[in-house]
Amino acid sequence: MHSQITELENAFKEELSQTDTSDGSAIEILRLKYLGKKGLVTDLLKGMGQLSAEEKPTFGKLVNDLKVSVQTAIETAQEIAKKAALARSLESGKIDISLPGEGYHKGSTHPLYDIREEVIDFFYGMGFKVDLGRDIETDWYNFEALNTPKDHPSRDMQDTFYLAEGVMLRTHTSGTQIHYMENHKPPLRMVALGHVFRVDSDATHAPMFQQCEGLVVDENISFAQLKGTLSLFAKKLFGENIKTRFRPSFFPFTEPSAELDVSCVFCGGAGCRRCKGTGWMEIGGCGSVDPAVFANVGIDSEKYTGFAFGFGLDRIAMLRHHIPEISLLTSNDQRFLGQF
Ligand code: FA5
Fold it and tell me: Where does the pLDDT of residue 1 fall: very low under 50, low under 70, confident under 90, or very high at 90 and above?
């Protein structure tokens, strides 16, 4: 019997020495083999029933000692395995705080917003008041008061989205001039910025775009002051080297009228595909306020003169950033917007 206990003890020691003590499941297998319900040490205890009453206490103590020493050895091994598992998990989940953080997308302002802010900044600095006007206008403000009667051919220049008889999405910001002159007495200086709408769509024309309207009314206002103001404005937008050209044109509400062109930002004025070989690009219209407009708002055209201008913010953004297609500005495409 004694030798049986010694053999079992040696066998256990041998097996334990060959077990990977960092592996908790291998130790559990060993525990079950010796101390489990059908384990080898448990079997020895069960076999005690066949012993005589004298043998039982001695044998019982030896088996119990064996059980305690196996149990202690197993617990020590389990402790080692636990520590090894913790070390492994710390190693695998280790955070290197010197590594850069995960990237995130930083938003930026829309190029049209930036231009709008710049325009406001420029004119505000020159003493202009800023107005927004309204998206929906009546025929009076969008056309009639601007010296454009119903049968006037220039109405065809702006293909209109009508909402009801005599009510429309404004085709230009010029109606704001009328609202402003109805509510303010000269001398006055104002710019109005906002969306305008036309049935119009190609690479450089959008059905919805933004315009900035400008109006100055006072005694002795001349076309020369208009040229000076807009030339300065063009330099502010496109840099000192930009050239401006005032090309004779027609608008019912200004007389004389002109288109404001800037030298092509793509070719510097040499002529290219973008400027259709002319070396110039149009950004807006302008002129001296027609006395008929003053008459519609009760301003004495014998005493006062004025100039007005209107240009497209989308066009300016296109020129500034070399954008080939106007619709990109309202496409909400991150690949495009992410470049600003
Ligand atoms: C007008 O809208 C006049 N109200 C401007 C004006 C104001 C003249 C005050 C005299 C006095 P025009 O239709 O040319 O003019 O448009 C002005 C500018 O708006 C154009 O030069 C261009 O920059 C821009 N624009 C016109 N149509 C479109 C369009 N469909 N898409 C984008 N920009 C446009």
Answer: low
pLDDT level of residue 99 (50, 70, 90 thresholds)? confident
On whether the CB atoms of residues 259 and 249 are closer than 8 A, the answer is: yes
Average pLDDT for 289-293: 98
210 lines ligand 1 (CB under 6 A): no
pTM check: above 0.90? no
Q: Worst-scoring range by mean pLDDT, 62-66, 71-75, 184-188?
A: 62-66
Cα 285 to averaged position of ligand 1 atoms, centre (Å): 6
Q: Phi then psi for 88, rounded to 5 degrees?
A: -60, -45
CATH number of this structure's domain 111-337, picked from the four choices 3.40.1790.10, 1.25.40.10, 3.30.470.30, 3.30.930.10: 3.30.930.10
- All structural domains of the chain with their residue ranges: 2-92, 111-337
Which of 292, 324, 307, 318 has its CA nearest to residue 257? 307
Q: How far is the CA of 141 from the centre of ligand 1 (A)?
A: 16
Q: Is the distance from the beta carbon of residue 200 to the nearest atom of ligand 1 less than 6 Å? A: yes
Does any ligand 1 atom lie closer than 6 A to the CB of residue 319? no
Contact 48, 63 (CB under 8 A): yes
133 lines ligand 1 (CB under 6 A): no
> 286 CB under 6 A from ligand 1?
yes
